[in-house]
Specification:
Layout: E1 4-12, H1 19-28, E2 32-41, E3 52-54, H2 57-69, E4 77-80, H3 86-102, E5 107-110, H4 117-122, H5 129-141, E6 146-149, E7 162-172, E8 178-188, H6 197-211, H7 216-242, H8 261-265, E9 273-281
Parallel strand pairs: 1-2, 1-4, 4-5
Antiparallel strand pairs: 2-3, 6-7, 7-8, 8-9
Helix pairs in contact: 1-6, 2-3, 6-7
Length: 284
Amino acid sequence: MECRVLSIQSHVVRGYVGNKSATFPLQVLGFEVDSINSVQFSNHTGYAHWKGQVLTAEELQVLYEGIKLNQVNRYDYILTGYSRDNSFLEMVVDIILELKKTNPSLVICTVMVEKGASQLLTGRKIKTEEDAFEVMELLHKMGPGTVVLTSTDLPSKQGGKFLVALGSQKTVKPDGSKTSQKICMDIPKVDAVFVGTGDLFAAMLLAWTHHHPTDLKAACEKTVSVMHHVIKRTINYANDVAGPGKKPSPAQLELRMVQSKADIENPAIAVAVRVLDSVIIISN
């Protein structure tokens, strides 16, 4: 069955961020993607110079109205990312609420780029693993069935060269039984600044949770492994082009997305995910 995604994110002419990071990988994995560009820039803002335009809330509404008038406004997923102001976000919310009337099972996937976004939303600071899962529990109560914290300051058991990521998933099966799963990942750090990786992560998590709807471990292993292969290929290319002892430029560090097509389609597992807790509750 065809699966269609409406992706409302930024766009760049050169490079990979926002919709440019999400669309190709999702299409490779068989998803139909309709893209609305919240901004259109020449390149991401990590370069010395950038030019472009910003889509207003009114312009977003006009684009959606065109889709609606042609009665092609049914989606399985909404993927949202970078937005510059509250009015635009409010319009995105209005569109989501209307789309949910057409498809009550619509799934919303959001990229929260701020490292402390989860703490800001819940008002809770994360200092320990227990804190992190308490924050995720609060986020679950706000609606999301799946929450993944991709960047924490928690120490890894594998040492300082690894980043700790945590996830929590709560699902209800057709028979009424409920399942929950908590997972942990130790992700190798790379000494470079990449742009667009959060957008790629969100797109891959959408794709792999679609294929593994009740198994967060499997979905995250494939998602993080895609990230590993793309970043490894990117840093190797950037270092080769920059030359020995030289720091790669933003242009050289653009994600090697097309070159990673095979890894996106069928990622070799490079990062193991540990299940910390898994519970099944049978409904009477």
